[in-house]
Automatic annotation (TrEMBL), chains A, B, C, D:
Keywords: DNA-binding, Transcription, Transcription regulation. Residues 11-71 form the HTH tetR-type domain. This is TetR/AcrR family transcriptional regulator. GO terms for molecular function: DNA binding. Residues 34-53 bind DNA. InterPro entries: DNA-bd_HTH_TetR-type_CS, Homeodomain-like_sf, HTH_TetR, Tet_transcr_reg_TetR-rel_C_sf, YfiR_C.
DNA sequence: AATGAATGAGAATTCATTCAT
DNA sequence: GATGAATGAATTCTCATTCAT
């Protein structure tokens, strides 16, 4: 007895739900999204939704995990290739990623902050937060370390600490951007200053 | 004609509720706190609680406003006095205040982040967030500007932008600290790096 | 030990509360009026209000009773005097009284309807309703009966039944007027028709 | 793809709830009925009830609308058919309908009066009241007008005004009947008088 | 007498999750 | 597998009434 519905179909359906859910999370934020919102956006029944995911948390975690995986892949790819300028790579990594609040507010970033901060007392949620943090840490420190090894960056400061500071600054900007309109933030000028700062401590130019 | 209990008594009770509520918010976070939690912690009946505050948001906003007011008072006081070292004042302001996630996790900071980020789509909440941001901005930029005027800091960078970057970094640290245990953060070393950074762009020493 | 506050003062206070309460009932209706509304309107404290009245029902009943008493006094007075035209007296009684929804909507009539109809399952309330009804009945039938005795009205119909019909019609108009704006009711023309009707069955002219 | 239960089943359940709710409204009146009452009477859970109706008002309005629709259908039907006696039709319409407080007190009429009168300050509620009034008006005036056109009724009075007076009288009777026991009302005799009155102004016989 | 703080019962509403079909 | 009706726990908020001072 072969299954009524092919595995591909299920995968497709699952992916559809995740895409719709992502839009919903972006629109309403994590806390204020309900399973009903997701059902409606994904055009799936209540029961259907629960067939693929245990609950709202499960849906969000799945989206997170896929994002995380993308990051990791990217990192591997990036470091395997011949890197001409680690400085450019670093900037790309910072600015091309959603950790840097880009101009479009169609970003899941605020919901992620929400997810982690509202769940800070929950063991499972904290594990996720840790994974997210160390993932970013690995990404940035790998680039910096390689740059240092290649002699492109100076070794005055520990790559780990620099990476952490990058994360802190990016998270802060993401937070401020989440609650304030772009116009209020002078993002460009802050970014320029931050770039100067990185140049200084990495000994670039 | 005289009231049953003195005005002081009422103020006292109100303050008690706020204190208890603050503890509850610190323990459960903003979203997961219910009025019941506050009632129980403050040892006040449902009706009693609603006599003093409209709803959970009102309770939290009151706490925020008092904190904000403390900040403002402090700022005024600070700037009226003769300042020996604006650099010391700046560090004190950063590290002495809760904006810097201090060692004790008995801080309301995570709940504040939560409050603003979960309410980012709410007009009223955004106004509060804006007030919080500009309040901090005013505080830091006033110190920097005065330091620049006195010739203690160099004027290479705009005080406004530096202040914004300080806020972003502190918010980021607060966020990361909210979701990760202290041990994971190497806070001390990050702070040292940040201090160096500030020294550089302010031309201190 | 004479009382601190004179009896007159108490009476005055009580009357003040009743006046304020009446306005409140007119504005919000019976059901939607709260003790708080009355307190605020009467500028009296919660405890003060409860010193004079048991509850909202008690306040309203007191107002009703005073109205009822006015009616009764009027009736007695009216019937003791020499009546030139019972027809005119009847019209005056109908149109001069609030049972006829007059142009001004500053009438307690809708709240009275509300009071009786929402309380129709309550023994005490029903007794009041009965009193109100029989009071009106007595008023109208007395006039009609006297008119009949004096030969001014024909005796074709029982004065009791005519009086009841007058009440039904007036209550109906009051009800319709309570829920519809005056413009929708063509009150004048309805009244004219009703007057014609009464003339016919009373054999006037 | 097919729903768990048939559409009929859902309709059935909805109808069950409405029936149960109607009984509850008749027993407790509109204001004193709670959603809990309806839940218990309909044997449906809290959530179940809210799946079908938004709130108490919604439940009641649904009942009202269905009644209204019945009325309208009846009217159309009635006027399309060949009418032998418009006088009989008029009487039937008055006495067969709940607008006339019939002997059985199992009528929703008092709750309807309650619904409209307690909601007289509410825009939405007033719209409903208006619809109710004009619906009745249309019904009665259509019959009268047709009777006049056919020469069965005289045209001395405007059909519109007569219809309004019928409504006022019926509403008044309904009100009085709501708050007084039948025995107190001499309904029969009032009705007889009213019939006479109608005969007179319609020129019947 | 007067005050108004405090109480708590009760009503409304939402939403995650289950489960019969 | 899919559906969506049904459940009920959890929460918010209101208000009449009491009572210590």
């Amino acid at each position: 007895m072969s299954p009524k519905v092919s595995k591909e179909h299920k995968e497709q359906r699952r992916a559809n739900i995740l895409n719709a859910a992502k839009d919903v999370f972006i629109e309403h934020g994590y806390e204020h999204t309900t399973m009903k919102h997701i059902m409606d956006a994904a055009n799936v029944s209540r029961g259907g939704l629960y067939q693929y995911f245990l609950n709202k948390e499960d849906v969000f975690e799945t989206i997170l995990e896929e994002d995380l995986q993308l990051n990791l892949n990217e990192l591997e790819e990036v470091l395997r290739e011949k890197v001409h300028s680690h400085w450019d790579l670093l900037l790309e990594t910072i600015y091309g990623e959603e950790r840097q609040p880009n101009d479009d507010m169609n970003s899941l970033a605020p919901s992620k902050l929400e997810f982690f901060i509202t769940g800070r007392n929950d063991k499972r949620r904290r594990e996720f937060g840790k994974a997210r943090y160390y993932n970013g840490l690995k990404l940035y420190s790998a680039i910096i370390e390689q740059g240092q090894q290649k002699g492109e960056f100076c070794t005055k400061f520990d790559s780990d600490i620099i990476a952490r500071s990058i994360i802190a600054f990016i998270d802060g900007l993401a937070f401020d951007h989440s609650i304030l309109p772009k116009e209020d933030l002078k993002m460009k000028q802050q970014s320029a200053l931050f770039r100067d700062y990185l140049k200084t401590i990495l000994g670039v130019e």
